[in-house]
């Protein structure tokens, strides 16, 4: 339970990152964050949260009290927005592309998903957000060492660097629907 994720908002209520429940509790205990009730948007400090906090994720038991697990916290002092780019990793390319092949549109599963260089490395193509897409093994083998045009294949959408607030990927939003209420409208996966 302590390693589950909690959404962190800055003082202006903009999502900036996620943290563990453990760290969220520490921030609340130190008085630098309050827990947000996702239903009413009320912010509660430590004592109030213990008394009246909702318990959709359950609670942690201490010797003298129960502590509701916070889904969202808001910082009381920090109002910045860290410019942390999304790390270029295989998993993040898959997330950006919705775990689908960018050529045929199928979702083959992680075991059959690969990374394709749109401009092949042998022809000077680099390994970065603008040149890599998720592809099923079949399409990747069919395209081989050619450009999509030469292979007679079209990309479903052009690759771009993802712009997830605070490094939040759309998959984390699917896991925690309550977080949708706090995401900007242009966030992929936000409703």
Strand percentage lies at 15-25%
- The backbone outline, from C-alpha atoms, is elongated
Averaged pLDDT: 86
Q: Detail the poorly predicted runs.
A: none
**Looking across the biggest beta sheet, what order are the strands in?**
2-1-7-3-4
Q: How many helical elements?
A: 6
Percent of residues in helical segments? 10-25%
Work out the radius of gyration.
21 Å
Class derived from helix and strand content: alpha+beta
How many strand segments? 9
The major β-sheet equals:
5 strands, mixed
The total domain count is 2
Question: What is the end-to-end distance?
Answer: 27 Å
- SSE arrangement, N to C: EEHEEHEEEHEEHHH
Provide structural commentary.
- The chain has 191 residues and is α+β, with helices and mostly antiparallel strands.
- The strands form 3 sheets. A 5-stranded mixed sheet has the order 2-1-7-3-4. Strands 5-6 form a two-stranded antiparallel sheet.
- It has 6 helices and 9 strands, in the order E-E-H-E-E-H-E-E-E-H-E-E-H-H-H.
- It is 21% helix and 19% strand.
- The mean pLDDT is 86.
- A hairpin with a 5-residue loop joins strand 1 and strand 2.
- It folds into 2 domains: 96 residues, no CATH class; 62 residues, DNA Binding (I), subunit A.
Strand and helix map with partners:
Blueprint lengths: L4 E5 L5 E6 H9 L3 E4 L6 E2 L1 H7 L6 E3 L4 E3 L3 E4 L14 H7 L16 E5 L14 E5 H7 L4 H4 L18 H6 L16
Parallel strand pairs: 1-7
Antiparallel strand pairs: 1-2, 3-4, 3-7, 5-6, 8-9
């Amino acid at each position: 339970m302590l390693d589950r994720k909690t959404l962190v908002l800055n003082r202006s209520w903009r999502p900036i990152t996620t943290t563990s429940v453990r760290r969220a509790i520490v921030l609340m205990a130190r008085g630098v964050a309050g827990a947000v009730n996702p239903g009413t948007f009320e912010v509660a400090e430590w004592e109030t949260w213990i008394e009246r906090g909702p318990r959709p994720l359950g609670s942690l038991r201490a010797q003298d009290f129960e502590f509701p697990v916070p889904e969202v916290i808001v910082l009381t002092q920090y109002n910045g927005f860290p410019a942390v780019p999304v790390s270029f990793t295989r998993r993040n390319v898959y997330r950006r592309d919705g775990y689908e092949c960018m050529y045929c549109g199928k979702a083959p599963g992680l075991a059959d998903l690969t990374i394709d260089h749109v401009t092949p490395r042998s022809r000077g193509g680099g390994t970065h957000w603008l040149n890599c897409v998720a592809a099923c093994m079949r399409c990747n083998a069919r395209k081989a060492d050619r450009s999509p045009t030469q292979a007679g294949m079209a990309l479903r959408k052009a690759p771009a660097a993802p712009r997830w607030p605070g490094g939040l990927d759309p998959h984390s939003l699917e896991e925690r629907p309550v977080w949708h209420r706090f995401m900007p409208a242009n966030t992929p996966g936000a409703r």
